[in-house]
Amino acid sequence: MRHWMFRCNDVSQKVSQSLDASLPFHHRMAVWMHLLMCRYCARFRRQLIMLRKVSRHMDDEPSIDETTATLSNETKERIKKVLRAIP
Questions:
Q1: Which of 58, 28, 63 is nearest to 45 (CA)?
Q2: Has this prediction a pTM greater than 0.70?
Q3: Strand stretches in 1-87, DSSP E
Q4: CB of 55 within 8 A of CB of 29?
Q5: Rounded Cα gap, residues 24 and 19, in angstroms
Q6: 30-61: per-residue pLDDT in tens?
């Protein structure tokens, strides 16, 4: 007889898949039940969702062009002072 509850390995796979496509109803219910009982898989799900949000946000942010990024003279002098103090 097949066990009705997913193991953590199965849940991590299903959670990842659920971010890209809808899972069948019985899979969603089994994952949901597992997440209620397993704090580690619930944490993994939250982390995946956070990583997805951050990665999408990073794509929207313009990158800093190194030619336009400059330091103030005061900052440059502080850096030089610290570098000179290193033996």
A1: 28
A2: no
A3: none
A4: no
A5: 13
A6: 999 999 999 999 999 999 999 998 888 776 66
